[in-house]
Design goal:
Two copies of one chain form a homodimer. Helices cover 34% and strands 23% of the residues of chain A. Chain A is α/β, with parallel strands linked by helices and 274 residues long. Chain A starts with 5 loop residues before the first helix and ends with a helix. Strand 7 of chain A pairs antiparallel with strand 7 of chain B, so a sheet runs across the interface.
Chain lengths: 274, 274
């Protein structure tokens, strides 16, 4: 460890903490990054990025930046949480301009808080830079508003995934029971591979099988696909149509709004052309 | 009505719909807009913006753009929903590049879906451009992650405000009961002026008065202030400290994370300087 400086030892003033920017990359399209995120990427010397971050987003990084993939890819760990923290600590201590880049928003099921705590324990401060979260943007890019007056007064975001080795990390049964009864929109991230189990469970807990639901796959990207179906039928339909991941599950009456928009638009255009 | 063109009448092909971009302005700082939003603002000929949108964000608009305020300001209606729709329809029909700019994200309690439906009924299509929502970013900019492994497996977003004249538009009692029991983070938007009522209601419904809670005021702006206190004490503390609106209420154990980050960082820096 090369720190602290002699000055800080003599004055008993703790040295300034080294800093890492923990940045949200948004749902995929490069122009859905924030201006702040784009600036930080353009100035970075090291970018440690999750697998979900698209090539288009990585292209915003400085050509001189070292790009290091981290996280999981199809279940395989490219770099563990501990390895990522080691890398970030070493880079921050060396004074490199360092960006930790995560898909969506860093604190929406992105384990940003964990990295902030582990970096802090080693004397490295973390600045959180919000990103567009798929929890809101995936439905929105498919025309589905997560809230809508008189339809959905709020929204609930859960993950279908329990972190490996941690029984207490996922939503518990009580949370799914709440999701089954909530009058607003329910958004489930990382649920595409467990769709039948999730939709079945929500129905068993009281949510009607006729509740409108949708799966939004690759939101905002050229391959975006939206499958809308009643909750009871969604898993079978999704299986038949082979929707690629990542996909966001949306449950609630707001799912019907894009069809209503299309209907009104069609009627207005027909009326105008008669 | 000046449309449709003669060509579309003869061919029985409906004319292409006119288009308005419904754009999220994020929580306030100009560099928390997306690149897409900044580009659209820079190209716009008309920007109809909510009152919450900051001057710094409006400065991103083309100098040639006409800026029209809309929505409410301190309860007073500057332009009604109907007036806004009329304005947008007229601009779109005139072929003007038109941006409807809303604070945060346009579909998170921003009535974006309503405008999309009303525009569609008049033959104007709406393209939704996601923005950083304060529901996630306000806590995040204060260092509070809305999800955290083993602490908050998801989050619930509600508004404290019922739209005037609509009894069915706000969360109902059952939703607040869910909020009282949810194991994840509860975020309440537009709740600052009804804090005592909200915190009292959640406690009456079973949430412990010792639950960590925080009010984040003017998130991300130079005047940002964060007040953390147990749920039972928050309203009195907020009253005493005169936190300015807009403010976001966050309830759950994640509120304790920034203090833990600071503690670890302090310990690490002290250890390094010994």
């Amino acid at each position: 460890v090369s720190r602290p400086s002699a000055a800080s030892r003599h004055d008993a003033v703790p040295p300034l903490p080294r800093r890492v920017h923990l940045v949200g990359a948004g749902p995929g399209p490069a122009d859905l990054l924030t201006l702040r995120a784009a600036r930080l990427l353009g100035q970075a010397e090291l970018v440690v990025h999750d697998q979900l971050v698209t090539e288009d987003v990585l292209a915003l990084a400085s050509p001189r930046a070292e790009l290091v993939p981290a996280g999981r890819r199809q279940g395989r760990v490219v770099a563990s949480h501990e390895e990522v923290v080691d890398l970030l600590v070493a880079a921050a201590r060396a004074g490199r301009r360092t960006v930790r880049l995560k898909g969506g928003d860093p604190v929406v099921l992105g384990r940003g808080g964990e990295e902030a705590l582990d970096l802090a324990a080693r004397g490295v401060a973390c600045e959180l830079v919000p990103g567009i979260t798929s929890a809101v943007a995936a439905p929105e890019l498919a025309g589905i508003p997560v809230t809508h007056r008189g339809v959905a007064p709020g929204f609930l975001v859960l993950t279908a995934q329990r972190a490996p080795g941690s029984s207490a990390s996922g939503p518990d049964g009580a949370d799914w029971a709440l999701a089954a009864r909530f009058s607003g929109t329910v958004v489930v991230l990382m649920g595409a591979t467990r769709l039948a189990e999730l939709c079945g469970r929500l129905q068993a807990l009281g949510r009607s099988g006729t509740t409108p639901a949708a799966l939004v796959s690759q939101a905002g990207l050229p391959g975006q696909r939206v499958l809308a179906a009643p909750l009871a039928q969604l898993p079978e339909r999704a299986l038949a149509e082979h929707l690629p991941t990542p996909a966001v599950l949306v449950i609630g009456d707001v799912v019907g709004i894009p069809a209503e928009v299309e209907r009104r638009l069609g009627d207005a255009l027909v009326a105008a052309s008669v």
